[in-house]
Amino acid sequence: MKLKIITFLFILKLVPVMAQEENNTTVKPVDTVALKQVQVDAALKEKTTPVLTDQQILEIQKATLETQKEAERIKAQAEKEAKAVEKEQRKLEKEQRRFEKRQDKIADSEKDLIKTKEKLNREKERLEKMQSKFEKSKRKGKLSEIEIEKENIKISKQQIKIQELQQDIDKTEKKLNKLRG
Description:
Helix 3 (54-140) packs antiparallel against helix 4 (145-180). The chain has helices spanning 2-19, 32-47, 54-140, 145-180. Helices cover 87% and strands 0% of the residues. It has four helices and no strands. It has a domain at 55-180. The protein is mostly helical.
């Protein structure tokens, strides 16, 4: 309902405005012959170009050729510089990859060194436990000669294993120092 009222009021306002519109157009006579003559004169002015002598044409051609040569030289120089920049960029990227690879190797060596040291500590603790257990059993007199020999062999093997781990640690430290330095 409101919509109908609003449209009705809009139409009431619009109709009087349209009714008040005036046409104040006056027709002026146009001289078509004079208009055509002006258009022809303008066309003639556009079509007439100055006549150039052979020497002027040669000079223009030389200037154009020199401009083209200069443009080619500039283009070649720009391409050369672009190639040099690209080459330098590849070189820097390659150096960056080498550095990252070296850093990864150092990190791996440090990780291996830590693991080997931890293993060495565990094996030393194991050796101490074996020796203390062996000494305790030996004091109590529970072991026969054969069992004593077997325990001595086990202890010797454990000592050899510890020595090998120590050699691995030394080797890894040398490798790490070489990578760092």
